[in-house]
Amino acid sequence: MSSEESEENTTGNTAEVSDGYLIVASGHKALTRRATNSDNNDTDRKVPSEDEQSIPARKRRIASPTESELVRAEEGEVYLREVVQEMNQAWKQDKDLLEKFFSSRTPFQERIRNAKERNYNSRTKRWSRYPVFPTEFSSLCNWFRVLLNDILLFEADGIPSRRERGPPSQLKQRRYVFATYKEDYLKEVTPLPRVSSSLYLAGSGPEFVTANGKLRPQPSPTAGLSPIEVTIGDGTRKQRNRLAANAADIFEWQSNRRFVFALLLTEEYCTVYMFDRAGATYSKPFNFHEDPDLFCTVICLLGSSKVNDIGFDGSIFLDRTGLHQIRCRQAAGRRSFRNQHYTVQSTIFQSPVYVGRGTFCWLVRRVGDKKSLYVIKDAWIAQDLPGKESEGFLLKLANDKGVTLGIPLFQSSEDIRQGDDPDTILLNRKISNPSREYLKLDRVHTRVVMKAYGKTLDQFSSRKELILAFHDAVLAHRNLHQIAGILHRDISIRNILIDSHGVEGSRGILIDFDNAVRVVDESLYAKKSRVGTYRFMSLNLLSKDSAPKQQTYINDLESFYYVLCWIMWVYVEPGKKTSVTPYPASAWDEDMMVYTAKWAHLKRLTFEADPFQPYFGASLPAMAERLRILLRRFIILRASKGSEDSPLPPEPEQDYSEFLAEIKKGISELELEEAEHPA
């Protein structure tokens, strides 16, 4: 068994001894340390390498974990593997990170001096009470916990540590480092971290909008500031992956986090990590014994009361009454702006992954307006290709062109700013002269406010509601393309909403314009192929046998068709899915099968081989069959009648008219069917 296998399969509190090596496992991981006399010789110490691995050892069990600990450990390992895969190629070392973020020590001079007077031996140039033989994981963790909390005691007058707390006052900022390698620290914590770190810097205050008004810090991702991993020995790759999992957990629970700092501590060295929506950057390790001022500065900044400096978005906060509020910057004239506050009612969507857009959508009410509901959408939009226009800009353009039905009613949009600067990945990382490689990482934090609508298309309550919403979404797509000159490029179930009380033309709402472009756009971004939701992507975009193709309205109409088919294959009735996804829908998430399955489906002469659920009757399958025949003509026959390089040109107005006519015919047939066979 390899050393990594040994670490991953160790559970409970166990110790392993083999050939001079001691492995101490603390419930969630195993840590190695060479147990020889030479370890105590400072001259033999070196900066840890991330690629070095520990030595395998035989096991000697001391204690067994409980069943709940085993389940949680298993779930944590699954989550850890997902985050590690997500972070592939997303790690970048910044040799100047310490200088960029921690060079200014003026705000902390008094606190550094006080901390050193109590805890640092200037004669030996080492921190006091440091374990004589730092080979035991728990003793090293406890030493770090005590020291870090002592440093934080003097970080700010308003942030006392546990031993100097007065009576709790509402939303008062506090900071505390917990020893989360101990399971007993987590017994009364909700929600639990998915992956337990060695130590956990947590806080309380108005910046923790999802902590349910907790007056004291707790080691939970709702109150997390910085995860801290402690390791004995040279292997650090597994520990940095655990930091990434904890950071991802914090991003998931804290919708107002822009970035998260984290620490990796060994017996001698400290490495600072910074996680954001582009991945992670990290510093060179520094010796915290030899540079106590820098170490204190790092700890003070990570526990700072200046929330923008530690990765919070100050425009999302709890007000004095504990209400979750969002402050938006809205135009009040040609060149003037005003702040508009909204109160969050609920979170209606959040991105399931950490690296990427990090989209959050909230249902909100404008302060002072108890009747109207709005949606605020925050996202980090990539800037890797020129030509990208913001969702807010395109929505406003569509509204200005007269397209108002079937799309969100635009209220305002902005690029979020932190002080005078835009909130971007590169500026947050303090990269002033980025290389081309770094430019590909950059993302801009954007916010759009629009009128709230209803539920997603797969939450239909009847066949008629489904098909009316489907028709109006296609009609909106036609109006965007033909009137406003905008191509959506991301047709999916979640991007079509049902407005049960909408007028004709707005019973279905087409949302999410993050991938949209102008029809006449020739920019690199507009030419980017394979944009959209993979499951509903068109044949041309999935094809790997030809050069990438620029998307057109035909690709989106094909995606509309796949959305309808998916629903009629997967849903046996409103709100109830099949226990097993039937073919060919089951193949649409498989990279090796999706193209072949869709090609075979479109080329078939009839639908008999791919039957829909009985609930949808005869009229809707008949309509889908007619749409399939239309798409065959649009995609296959039209291309075959032209040359390979010059297929017959598209005819958008005629194609849209025919597509919509078939849907209208389906609506009429459904009404007749329901009249003849009432429920």
TrEMBL record:
Residues 1-68 are annotated as: Disordered. It comes from the Eukaryota. Residues 349-660 form the Protein kinase domain. Transmembrane segments: none annotated. GO terms for molecular function: ATP binding; protein kinase activity. PROSITE patterns: PROTEIN_KINASE_DOM, PROTEIN_KINASE_TYR. InterPro entries: Kinase-like_dom_sf, Pkinase_fungal, Prot_kinase_dom, Tyr_kinase_AS. PANTHER family: FUNK1 11, FUNK1 6. This is Protein kinase domain-containing protein. It comes from Sphaerobolus stellatus (strain SS14).
